Amino acid sequence: MTKKFSNKYETDDSPLAAAIFKVRGVSEVMLGSNHVTVTKKQTMDWELIQPNVELVISQFYAAGLKAVRDGVMEREAATSRPAPVEGSTEALILELLEERVRPFVQQDGGDVEFDHFDSADGTLYLRMHGACSGCPKSSVTLQHGIKNLMEHYIPEVKNVLPVEEEDGTPHPH
Q1: Which residues are paired to 139 by β-bridges?
Q2: Side by side, which strands form the sheet with 123-130?
Q3: Distance between CA atoms of 160 and 68, rounded to whole angstroms?
């Protein structure tokens, strides 16, 4: 599970995210099970903030602190959408995303989250997070990487579209 923090006021559940937001120029922090993605403000140069971000993260883990408070991920999992019916198209999509898509996207500092599948027209709607959100190459990742993979393994998927964070509406590229 990935947890995203869009500002310092959302970090009550994560001491690590709170510490990273103390670095001037940080605009978003995303914590995954095996990665941390830090997004900078557009007005900042990464070269200026990267050493400070790396120092904060290394000192945090060297101190043996927990990135997220106990029980937070379990609480979020309990309040998330119910699991799809086993063997359904949605279940197959979620399995493919988890096993074949997310690990590769996470290597680049991003993440992909299932939003919904419209069985009427075969459109799969996904949310792009972290480095993938707003990245010009995310449409290539969606249309050529994810779409081709989904169509190959799940013929019911005919199209893949991103859902934008702000308003929750799909935006074809």
Answers
A1: none
A2: 110-118, 123-130, 159-162
A3: 32
